[in-house]
Amino acid sequence: MCDADNTTTKKTIRVATGDRAILPEGAKTIPVYIMGKKYEVPETLTIMKAMEYAGFKFLRGAGCRGGICGACPTVYRMAGDYKLHFGLACQTVVEADMYLAQIPFFPANRAEYNIEEIGGAAEAIHALYPELFRCVACNLCTKACPMDVDVLGYISALKQGNIKKAAELSFDCIQCGLCASRCMGEIPQYHIAQLARRVYGRYIQPRAEHLQKRVGEIESGKYDAMLQELSAMSKEDLEKCYVEREREPDLAPPGTWQPKETRYL
Amino acid sequence: MAYTPELKELIKRVEATRPARVAMARRGENFPALTMAEREQVLSKYHPDYQADAKRTVQVGPNKGDTFQEGVARLLESRSLVRPDKVRLDKVDFDTDVLVIGGGGAGTSAAIMASEAGCRVIVSTKLRHGDSNTIMAEGGIQAATQECDSPYYHFLDTIGGGHFTNQRDLVAALAHDAPLSIAWLESLGMMFNKMPDGRTSVRHCGGSSRKRMQSAGDMTGAEIMRVIRDEVRNRSNLITTLEFHPAVELLLDEAGKCAGAILMNMETREFSVVRAKAVVIATGGFGRLHIKGFATTNHYGATMDGVVMAYRAGVGNKCLHSTQYHPTGVAYPEQNVGLLITEKVRGLGAHVLNIDGEQFCFPLEPRDVESAELIREAMDVGKGIITPTGRVGLWLDSPMIEELHGPGTVKKELPAKFIQFERHGIDISKEPMLVYPTLHYQNGGINVNGNSETVIPGLYAAGEAIGGVHGENRLMGNSLQDIITFGRRAGKNAAAYIQGGVALKGLTLDHVVKFEKELAEAGIEDPAIAPILLPDYATEEVVERRWTEALTDRAALR
Fold first, then answer.
1. Could B152 and A227 be called an inter-chain contact, meaning their C-beta atoms sit closer than 8 Å?
2. Superfamily of domain A122-204
3. Residue-wise pLDDT tens digits, B357-368
4. ipTM
5. What is the pLDDT of residues B220-257, one digit of tens each?
6. SS3 for B340?
7. CB-based contact (8 Å) between B289 and chain A?
8. Across the interface, do A69 and B189 touch by the CB < 8 Å criterion?
9. CB contact under 8 A, B389 and A207
10. Catalytic member of B79, B326, B351, B488
11. What is the pLDDT of residue B108?
């Protein structure tokens, strides 16, 4: 539940609270067709908030509400126009005479694998997802992507065995599934991209050696006494240590700067 | 969407005052900052965390006598969704080792670690697996991985940033485990930003003494979530994920150990009893309570469910009075509402202005003071700008930056913000932004120790749902680290607890009966029913037309 409208003692100013929209005096509404049914909603609202304004309460089809979780893929068309458009309900503003429906879930095959055993060769990915080769390069996947990911580009890269390119091209994928919903080859693109990125991160990107060293130090107990010392310190002493700590210069290249005080490194 | 003609008309007032304001800025003159006494006054009157009238003391439960925001207090003093005296617990629907409540970063990490130790795990999540605040975190994750850094300095930066109000064993755990978390994520195949030799790229954040922010593009949280969710899906032999299936009440056994929970399938309205030898609460924050009506950066399900359930079972909380607001959240366009606009915009010289294009505050007061001044101008003075959807905002005059530092500065210094607004037809180098304070992070939460244990045997908690890691102020990049550190600790320790031998006795809801008796004795009438699970954004007009029980036979409608 949200708090009641935010009001003050002096004047009562009625404003929208939380994500609940209101129609201020004199503001316009526009007609939209939610799954074919007409509702009047304020202009400038997102599809998601327009549906809530109309009285829908989401269970499926809403997540982060900030364009990054992929819960609210939506397909729409303008009256009188054949062209289908794709977008996220939380990131797309309603327009007059928009016909829309959400696709909160689309079935897509996902293969299980063991990241420890899969290795860095493209053949393993091909073996798990042979349907990759059903791609006919129609590019409907890319056209449907609300994140402007070059879906066909990464699928093609994977067919050629270029995991690095596929990982980088697919990095902005939010796994909403619109690509899979449009695919003639019935390919679960976003699951394959996830696999490619993990294989890349695990087997192809160089490992962080300084990190391995630090892990070793931590596991050997090197910092246990220091952390105990800090935990037991008086607030005054802590404040003193805090104020006296040196700050790494902003422009120092990583791994080059050393502080004067080295006892606690 | 681009500014409407009405808003464009109002922007002319900003443009009219701009030459004089730019000249003033060039002379090095500022709108006067508040004195300490004035700060106190504006905070106590207008800041939601300080306003006495917006807060009250809770009368029941482990934090009886403590003061909270009204919206939080109401949920702490709430009653259960189930009628504890009528529910039958002898029929168990799911039997498992570990029940993880919450499918964000902390819960997912806990599930992986518990399964790693051989435990059977159920992950109960209200929305889809991964729908969480984790996925929304952009900036990065702190860990002392560099040679010039160490957990010692991570500890100091964190506790100093929290004004020394943090719980120290939690800070020590965070600083200690942080590099281990990064190594774990790397081994799972997370794509960190790296140098050609594999060294993780690191940056400073506000309040850090060493560069410690590692990242994955500007979607670090999303990359973490994608990777660990994918890992859970590879472990279907041990981990079962129940989506749209939140927990609505914890179950204890007759000896007082935590022993499972009641879940509700939100799609079919079926309830089920889960018996588990250990339970991990990882339900995240409370942004969607919209304390005092504020917009939020949080995901749709951030409604404090875990804190509420733990409270009824006898686990208190700390620092829950402390909320992180950011003074300049977006108020327009709707797609960006609530999202943050970095302090850097004001740092580069942009003024904050009212509807008449006038300055009313020094633009670089501390965050809480700045927020309070914006609220005062909009709600009390009444000089806010009302958007076409009824939101209130104030102008942040970003085009000034171009005049002060030369053309192209906005795009160069604020590339992400520039693109974000450009996408919606607003060029922030030419048009000002509409901003208003927004609710970002729940600083406090459930009491745990450094092992993620609560006072109830078998009950663990992790992530934004716990309190004390950050004290009353959190550093950037420590929330993602909190999630991984304590998620992993909770999962590992729950498994170790189970492997030490756990014999559950009969399941009970006696703690709920007792709590509700306390509510009645305290004279709390008409308590809220919680967890509330999801906010409702229907307009008042729609709510009115949803005829109430008095007018309709609800039973027939279900």
1. yes
2. Alpha-helical ferredoxin (1.10.1060.10)
3. 999 999 888 777
4. 0.94
5. 999 999 999 999 999 999 999 999 999 999 999 999 99
6. strand
7. yes
8. no
9. no
10. B326
11. 98
**Distance (Å) from the alpha carbon of A98 to chain B's nearest alpha carbon:** 15
Could you tell me if B424 lies within 8 Å of chain A, comparing CB atoms? yes
* Tens digit of each residue's pLDDT (9 = 90 or more) over B124-146: 999 999 999 999 887 789 999 99
Q: Across-strand partners of A20?
A: A17
The DSSP element (H or E) to which A144 belongs, if any, is helix A140-144
* pLDDT given at position B324: 84
Which chain A residue shows the shortest CA-CA distance from B218?
A172
Q: Cis bond leading into B333, ω under 30°?
A: yes
Give CATH superfamily name and number for B94-322+443-510: FAD/NAD(P)-binding domain (3.50.50.60)
> Is some CB atom of chain A closer than 8 A to the CB atom of B160?
yes
Domain boundaries, chain B: 5-30+327-438, 94-322+443-510
Write the CB contacts of B416 (distance below 8 Å, at least 6 apart in sequence): B218
Q: Are B327 and B317 a contacting pair, CB within 8 Å?
A: no
Q: Nearest-CA distance from A130 to chain B in Å? A: 19
B415 vs B389 pLDDT, higher one: B389
Contact B294 A18 (CB under 8 A): yes
Q: How far apart are the first and last CA of chain B?
A: 39
CATH code: domain A29-102 is 3.10.20.30
Q: Does B206 touch chain A (CB under 8 A)?
A: no
- Cα–Cα distance measured from residue B416 to residue B193, given in angstroms and rounded to the nearest whole number: 17
> What DSSP string runs through B234-270?
TTTTTEEEETT--EEEEEEETTS-EEEEEEEETTTTE
Active site residue B21: no
